[in-house]
Design a protein that fits this description.
The protein is mainly α. The longest helix has 38 residues, at 86-123. It has helices at residues 3-7, 13-46, 53-81, 86-123.
Length: 127
């Protein structure tokens, strides 16, 4: 067996079709969830008198992060479905993990700033 033959693998068509169908279902479920979350966030904003601006900022950031992270995961899963060989799978996985680590560090920093501002605003004496 040549080295090329050992490094190449094929996903059976039936398995790929099943995975793609599952992926499509997951993406549709995520889109429905996101629409519901945005609708809920919108209704909370309409009750503005009871919702503080800082809580709104934190909620908006959390929803935005969740959307980005799930979208990145779905995009990664789709890319894996299209991988031609094990080498490509490993490259895609490595790139995904590195990108997610950068993204999570950035998100944690941003969320820390938002929460810190909210705490400072809450500690201010009322006029």
């Amino acid at each position: 067996m040549s080295d090329e033959g050992r490094d190449r693998f094929e996903i059976p068509k039936e398995m790929r079709s099943m995975a793609e169908a599952s992926f499509d279902q997951a993406r549709k479920a995520f889109e429905k969830f996101l629409a519901g979350a945005q609708l809920t966030a919108g209704s909370m904003e309409e009750r503005g008198a009871t919702v503080r601006a800082s809580a709104k900022d934190i909620s908006a950031k959390a929803i935005s992060y969740a959307e980005k992270n799930v979208q990145a995961s779905l995009d990664h899963a789709q890319a894996l479905l299209q991988a031609k060989d094990l080498t490509e799978v490993m490259r895609l996985q490595s790139e995904y993990v590195q990108a997610q680590m950068r993204s999570l560090a950035e998100q944690a920093s941003e969320m820390g700033q938002v929460v810190s501002r909210a705490a400072m605003d809450a500690a201010k004496p009322k006029d």
